[in-house]
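agent> step 3/5: call structure_predict on target 'Phosphomannomutase/phosphoglucomutase' (Lentzea tibetensis).
agent> reason: downstream docking stage needs a structural representation; sequence fetched in step 2, passing through unchanged.
tool.input:
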Amino acid sequence: MRDLSGIVKAYDIRGVVGEQLDADVVRDFGAAFARLVGGPAVVIGHDMRDSSPGLAAAFAEGVTKQGVDVVSIGLASTDMLYFASGKLNLPGAMFTASHNPAQYNGIKLCRAGAAPVGQDTGLGQIREDAENEVPDAEGVTPGSLQERDMLSEYAAYLNQLVDLRQNRQLKIVVDAGNGMGGYTVPEVFAGLPFEIIPLYFELDGNFPNHEANPLDPKNIVDLQAKVREVGADAGVAFDGDADRCFVVDEHGEPVSPSAITALVAVRELKKDPGGTIIHNLITSHAVPEIVTEHGGKAVRTRVGHSFIKEEMARTGAIFGGEHSAHYYFRDFWRADTGMLAALHVLAALGEQDSPLSDITRDYARYAASGEVNSTVTDQAGRLKAIKDTYGAKDGVTLDELDGLTVALPDGSWFNLRASNTEPLLRLNVEAATPEAVAALRDEVLAIVRA
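tool.output (status=ok):
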């Protein structure tokens, strides 16, 4: 029996091609997924990695041999696959390893209507079946394979949700990182009042220019420089599968995902007064403050797309945002789409004459550390040491919804979480000033890394 525990993660499947992930394994994943969802069909998309078309084809073979049809949409961003799943009301599989290096690939799975599939909602069963190698279904007619281009429908749907046609002309630098943004941006932005200066739109799964992970500051250096060079109104960067977007203002300064979450939340609340907004516990405290000030209800949740989507379904939330630049919309089947978030930001900018730095300043009230990772062998022991240290202080509150969140009397706070896949503790700190952030960060790290 195979052991697939190393590649079946909490929310997706991901591994090194040829070593952990090959056509035989993927074929069994396809068969197992078909058995889980039952049919009538599965929609499949893939990114621009060299290995993606072949792996997608193997997955499709596994699906059809179980008597389930396949709708192949070919090249796609992850949110385009979610669109197809929602529009066609079919379960879906997206072949991508997001921002991981070229030797990796993976599968993101969803049920019909882009509903998430995680360890507790089917992924564990898929792993168990694939480990035992799924036999071909007996006595059934193999499913058919149909190819369908969804790009234009996807673009039209997004532009229906955010209408920018009457906005002022903007000059925008877009860094696609040689990922799927280079495929979707030209279609989505066509006909809009934008002058687009493209960076790295050539689809190349070897990522020759930089990693397609815009949350790492080193990967937005080119974007920042180009924005300043051409005098752009803003810059937008997408990750490899283009489901996340990162924004810089006219000075090339990063706009935090928390500020984007707050900005989009305010726009969505104008359409649905009193609506619920989901935010994970690592987003800035400015997010729930601003949501409340604009008449909305802020609901805090754990980190991770399955938790966000489940909470959105439970509460009927209109929007959700994470510190990692994932943005979820009720009007997009509660799925995450960086492209729709980018359109909202550009709409907010184009509707008036102020620069982006002025607009986003209202949504960025505090200083933050960003995620600081520490390699530790005893995650539980280090977390306990932090809990014991700060739990003994007056006026401190502790919260264990996801890892350990510590709130101090002066309004500063931090969250410390163990990675699910690596021997890491992840620290996020927020305080009134950069100096206060640095002091608290260093105080916590001294204990974590002792």
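agent> step 4/5: record observation. The domain at 13-149 is CATH 3.40.120.10 (Alpha-D-Glucose-1,6-Bisphosphate; Chain A, domain 3).
agent> proceeding.
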